[in-house]
Specification:
This protein is of the alpha/beta class. Among the domains are: 71 residues, DNA polymerase, domain 1 (Orthogonal Bundle), CATH 1.10.150; 94 residues, OB fold (Dihydrolipoamide Acetyltransferase, E2P), CATH 2.40.50; 153 residues, P-loop containing nucleotide triphosphate hydrolases (Rossmann fold); 156 residues, Rossmann fold, CATH 3.40.50. The protein is 38% helix and 18% strand. The chain is built from 24 helices and 21 strands. Strands 11-12-10-13-14-9-15 form a 7-stranded parallel beta sheet, sandwiched between helices. The protein has a 6-stranded parallel beta sheet with strand order 16-21-20-17-19-18, sandwiched between helices. It has a 5-stranded mixed β-barrel with strand order 2-3-4-6-5. The longest helix is centred in the N-terminal third of the chain and has 32 residues. The protein is globular and about 80 Å long. The two termini are 41 Å apart.
Length: 691
């Protein structure tokens, strides 16, 4: 019998839970009744989504429900594998696991009833390799019952405590009457305008749908809510930026024209457009909050230099923050080269600096004797003080959290902010995660920039590749070889790179081969990079430390080992380290663990040099969580929303949020919405004007 219970009640008071189970539920973020209702199933079984084994074909992506007839571990070549035979009464299929054999062996037993999901392959009969699977109750049979059965995310802790799919269904069923007391934070008008269903109906049907149509409407409503609250936060942040005043930097001064005249080339029309957008922003008394996207080699750095000298013309200081010391040094050298022409002082601040040098720099920055400071996270330390910080530039901004950027901007009186990224961001991600920023895109490459030729090879063709590299080196050019961050179960990226370095030294006798990695001391890295820049090192072996910040125009070949282990966006970033000069350049992707998915992904690298096309494909294939090589901090973790497929819904939610903030910026006329923001999104509100 279900009971009505307060939504804020601790979950332990629900029938059949108790203190021990409550502790386990807390490990997956379920502390209250409200949390439990919002713990959504990750998949559903129903008669329309489950196939019969007798009907499957090769390459089908399918869901099957059956019983394990036989299972066990066996030796295959150099490693052990686990196999299980699944039967559903219409046929048999083999399930195969190459990785995590010990865990699977303890998890799956003969007689277990499973729902499995994966791609059907044919090798001595039908099989699914590394299927996604759920253990089912004996009565969970959608084919015979016609029921729609929810399957919940089950962590190792939940499984250990015997909290399974049936447990969740029972717990939620016991508080079914609580659905009736759920207040909706969206008013009737918004629900009608956006063709949504009420919140209490959506929550009931997400757990207990009577039809697929009911389920679709529930998912749509709950997805809308997640997108809406993120968009609401972005709109509130944007409103907050617009509400504070700052010093307008409207004076142009002679510096910018002097630097433009000395470039020796004409800016592209895209660069000119972006420079104008930045000028327009910084000349207002509202702080600029702009994101500059530009593909690798599109010329973002010169745009940031021109923006910097415009700011200095107005007697303010500029801080440029980069994610790595290599990139900070690179920027410092580039900025200094241009700024010296117009007698603007520039300094470097990084973690590994002599104490005396650092102290001298800090004093000069505080006194206003230094106009421009380039640095890493070292810029946001407490002892860094500016006389008048007017512009902050953050490069590869996705590697910094919102809070880190905030610490730097707080060192000035509401300075203008320009964030830059060479990682092209798909449109839906841009409006989702950067909806509080104005967007500039450099969508045009310099005329002299030759596209890099990309080829995917297997290890059998490596001898030909090495011969080609030797020919390039003998012609006076240079090469880079990159090793990935490897899975922990195998050797580390450093071990792989070091081993590769020793091997390549033997292969390329008479050629100078160097090694660089992130755990080297700064002096060692600097010395290696200096030798590489002077062409004293012909082939540079590296971990992914060179993903950003290396600008060697003479480098013509990039060889990437185990390319299947990289995301497309990261491969594109690495490829951008060559082709920076006038010589024809090549990116060779070595695929060692060949699978159909990796072959398809790597083929995209051969087909296009367009970072935006690659970013879209990467997002579709890997999802937003792994889109960047470093996890974003300071952002929502969506439970049900999906940036890849929810484009129209995101735009709908964005429009709804804009309307709310334009007409009621303090959310005073929307108390339930305001309460939900304050309760569930409190950690994100420090940069938004709502209290």
């Amino acid at each position: 019998m279900s009971t009505q219970i307060d939504l804020n009640s601790p979950v332990q008071y629900i029938q059949g839970v108790g203190p021990k189970r409550a502790e386990v539920l807390q490990s997956v973020g379920v502390s209250t009744v409200h949390d439990l209702l919002h713990y959504y199933p990750r998949r559903y079984l129903d008669r329309t989504s489950v196939s019969s084994i007798r009907n499957i074909k090769k390459n089908d992506v399918t869901t099957l429900v059956g019983t394990i007839e036989v299972c066990g571990e066996r030796q295959a070549r150099k490693r052990k594998i686990f196999q299980a035979v699944l039967s559903d009464g219409t046929g048999l299929i083999t399930l195969v696991w190459f990785n995590g054999v010990k865990y699977i062996k303890n998890s799956i037993q003969k007689g277990d009833r499973l729902a499995v999901h994966g791609k059907v392959e044919f090798y001595n009969g039908f099989q699914i390799v590394h299927p996604d699977y759920d253990k089912l109750d004996t009565d969970a049979d959608p084919i015979n019952t016609g029921a729609i059965i929810p399957l919940y995310p089950l962590s190792a802790e939940l499984k250990k405590a015997k909290v399974d799919h049936r447990s969740f269904r029972r717990m939620i069923k016991s508080i079914e009457d609580s659905f009736s007391v759920i207040d909706d934070h969206l008013n009737a008008e918004m629900i009608h305008e956006n063709k949504l269903i009420p919140l209490h109906t959506a929550l009931k049907h997400i757990h207990f749908p009577d039809s697929i149509d009911e389920l679709k409407k529930a998912i749509n409503r709950l997805k809308f809510d997640e997108h809406f609250f993120l968009q609401l936060l972005m709109m509130l942040r944007k409103k907050s930026y617009e509400a504070v005043g700052t010093k307008p930097l409207s004076k142009m001064g002679p510096y910018e024209q002097t630097i433009r005249d000395g470039l020796g080339y004409e800016l592209t029309s895209a660069q000119k457009r972006v420079v104008d957008e930045i000028h327009s922003d910084i000349s207002r008394n509202i702080p600029m909050n702009r994101l500059l996207q530009g593909d690798v080699g599109s010329g973002k750095t010169i745009v940031s230099i021109l923006s910097t000298v415009s700011a200095v013309s107005n007697s303010v200081q500029v801080a440029i923050m980069a994610p790595t010391e290599i990139l900070a040094h690179q920027h410092f050298e580039t900025f200094k080269k241009h700024l010296e022409k117009v007698h603007i002082s520039c300094a470097l601040l990084v973690g590994k600096q002599k104490a005396s040098e650092r102290k001298q720099t800090l004093e000069a920055v505080k006194d206003g004797k230094i106009d421009v400071v380039v640095g890493t996270h070292a810029l946001i330390q407490k002892d860094v003080e500016f006389k008048e910080l007017g512009l902050v530039i953050v490069d590869e901004q996705h590697r910094f959290g919102v809070a880190q950027r905030g610490v730097l901007t707080q060192k000035g009186l509401n300075p203008h902010l320009l964030a830059m990224t060479a990682t092209p961001i798909p449109r839906t991600m841009a409006i989702t995660y950067h909806g509080d920023m104005d967007l500039s895109i450099i969508d045009e490459m310099p005329k002299d920039r030759k596209p890099v030729i990309t080829k995917v090879v297997n290890e059998e063709r490596l001898q030909n590749v090495y011969k080609f590299i030797r020919e390039e080196v003998e012609a006076g050019r240079q090469c880079m070889v990159v090793y990935p961050l490897v899975e922990e179960t195998e050797k580390s990226d450093l071990a792989a790179a070091t081993e590769g370095f020793e091997e390549l030294k033997k292969i390329f006798k008479g050629i100078n081969v160097g090694l660089i990695h992130g755990r080297m001391k700064k002096d060692e890295k600097d010395a290696i990079m200096d030798s590489y820049a002077k062409n004293e090192i012909n082939i540079l072996v590296s971990t992914t430390v060179i993903e950003v910040g290396i600008d060697i125009p003479n480098a013509s070949v990039m060889l990437i080992e185990h390319a299947e282990r990289f995301g497309l966006t990261q491969l594109h970033q690495l490829r951008g380290r060559v082709g920076r000069g006038s010589v024809k350049s090549y990116c060779i992707l070595v695929e060692r663990n060949i699978r159909e998915t990796s072959r398809k992904r790597l083929a995209i690298m051969e087909e296009t040099n367009d970072g935006f096309v690659i970013a879209d494909e990467d997002l579709k294939m890997r999802g937003p969580g792994k889109f960047f090589s470093t996890e974003q901090s300071g952002f929502f973790k969506h439970k049900i929303a999906d940036m890849v497929t929810d484009g129209p819904l995101i735009r709908l939610a964005r429009k709804a949020a804009q309307n709310i903030v334009e007409n009621d910026p303090a959310l005073n006329d929307h108390p339930l919405m305001k309460n939900r923001m304050l309760k569930d999104y409190a950690q994100y509100l420090e940069t938004a004007a709502i209290s």
